[in-house]
Amino acid sequence: MNGPVAGILKPSVGAARRIMIGSGVLEVNDATFDQEVLKSEQLVLVDFWAVWCGPCKLIAPVVESIAASFAGKLKVAKVNVDENSGTPSRYGIRGIPALLFFKGGKVADQIVGYVPQDVIEEKVKRLLV
Questions:
Q1: How far is Cα 68 from Cα 129, in angstroms, rounded to an integer?
Q2: How many domains is the chain built from?
Q3: Beta pairing partners, 46
Q4: Annotated active-site positions, please?
Q5: pTM
Q6: Tens of pLDDT along 32-69?
Q7: Any domain includes 54
Q8: What b/e readout covers 113-124, taking b as 16+ CB neighbours within 10 angstroms?
């Protein structure tokens, strides 16, 4: 199996999907967002993306690297904006990629567009304090 769905475990209805590429990135949807993100006790980085988005493809390996680097300290999730319109609308997502950082169930910071890995790492380190 090739393409964007390669390596994704198909979920039961309403379940979160784990992207099985060793990255520790959780795929969430409108139904699972509150439980997986807002109720998380960890800092959560949410990557809002779409399959057709070029910059989203560029930042994906950076997000996966961040997930690996901060495993156990940072929860990383992805929301496909084409398949889930409620959550992006709720947070005013107008451009992608959009990285939102959630702490205590609230947006603590955000980045819109492609940025280098060190910029994201600095935000994570600052928010983990």
A1: 19
A2: 1
A3: 77, 100
A4: 53, 56
A5: 0.83
A6: 999 999 999 999 999 999 999 999 999 999 999 999 99
A7: yes
A8: eeeeeeebeebb
